[in-house]
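Need the bound structure for cobalt (II) ion, inputs here:
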Amino acid sequence: MAVVKSINHVAVVVSDMEQSLSFWRDALGIELHELRDVPAEKSQVAFLPLAGAEVELVMPTTDDSGIAKYLAKRGQGMHHLCLEVDDIAGMLTQLKAKNIRLINEEPRTAADGKKYAFIHPESTGGVLVELYQL
Ligand code: CO
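Answer from helper R.:
Posting the output first, comments after.
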């Protein structure tokens, strides 16, 4: 059976990165590790690691991505919770067997080699959940 190991990150969708960093970095004092453009996701992402988990601020850079539509519809706020698992393919099979609705039926591979997949909020009590296998 596949196992959930930890919370990897919490992602917050923002409309103005500098304004958002004025809270997370400047007011709270969390160190900004990296600010990166992610063209594949049409977004800019700020990584603010803490012990054991990370806060990620995600700002859409075009109007036509899924996250841009989310921001337009629901405004800024929590976007998803990411759980690290030991075996993402095994976990997806396990979830499908329990009739959990998945956004990605198969694991996808990010530019840095991480495998990920999203679970539909309809099956999670309203939270978009991302799975990661490092
Ligand atoms: Co994420």
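Comments: The radius of gyration is 15 Å. The domain at 4-133 is CATH 3.10.180.10 (2,3-Dihydroxybiphenyl 1,2-Dioxygenase; domain 1).
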